[in-house]
Design goal:
Layout lengths: L1 E4 L18 H4 L2 H4 L2 H6 L1 H19 L4 H11 L5 E4 L5 H5 L4 E3 L2 E8 L5 E3 H7 L15 E5 L8 H13 L2 E5 L10 H8 L3 E5 L12 E3 L3 H10 L11
Parallel strand pairs: 1-2, 1-7, 2-3, 7-8, 8-9
Antiparallel strand pairs: 4-5, 4-6
Helix pairs in contact: 5-10, 8-9
The structure holds adenosine-5-diphosphoribose (APR).
Length: 240
Amino acid sequence: MVAFTGAGISEESGIPTYRDTNGLWTKYDPSKYASIDYFLQDPSYYWHFFREVRYPLLFESAQPNPGHLALADLERTGKLRCVITQNIDGLHQEAGSTRVIELHGNTRIIRCLECSKEFTAEKVYEMTETRIPPLCTDCGGLLKPAVVFFGEQLPQDAVHDAYAEAEACDLFLVVGSSLVVYPAAHIPVRAKECGARLVIINKEPTVMDTLADAVLNAKAGTTLPQIIATPAPQRNTPKT
Ligand code: APR
């Protein structure tokens, strides 16, 4: 089994999703706050957003919820090969998942665009107290989080690994994603093309429900632990 997660699995950890009623993109224009072109034109926009929204949400309060922990349990018991995530919050790793493929990068690392020097998010948050946009302490270059902005390439090694896992798995479990952002959203399609069963656990219907073998419109934090706790149906062994 391979899990594919989106912002919905972190919603019960207090991190807003993007496209729900109160999602981030209903308040902040992604073409300004998450686009590489706009970032290079006016980086202060993003860094004010980082300071007022991103950092407090991600680093001060977010903890893994039972949905993250359930996937980590499935990995521990050998039932789950890996988690392919669109999320940048690092909560799968904090929950104990060890094979996590981050398609959209993460906010833990912040790099200088000139000399590639790396900074922690905590350090850069401190730097934004006195200067926005924060600049590299070595070369004065612009800093950018290791998150994939709209208009940027996804990390090729992550994409390659995600496709390899999707093409080889028996069951592809989507949790908490609207499945509208490509190329990530093509990965469940590829799993299905290669013979996997597709299960979608999402609070609301998605555009891929007709492709799925099973759809559960429910919250990840309650559903996943219940699925784990339910003993697998006994295969009825043919009578000899
Ligand atoms: N349990 C299960 N599903 C949930 C929950 C929950 N507790 N809360 C919300 N959801 C569902 C919503 O119904 C929604 O369909 O999670 C989905 C989240 O969808 P999006 O907000 O579009 O997030 P996501 O699919 O991860 O977005 C993909 O878009 O902006 C980019 O890079 C960003 O990685 C992100 C990508």
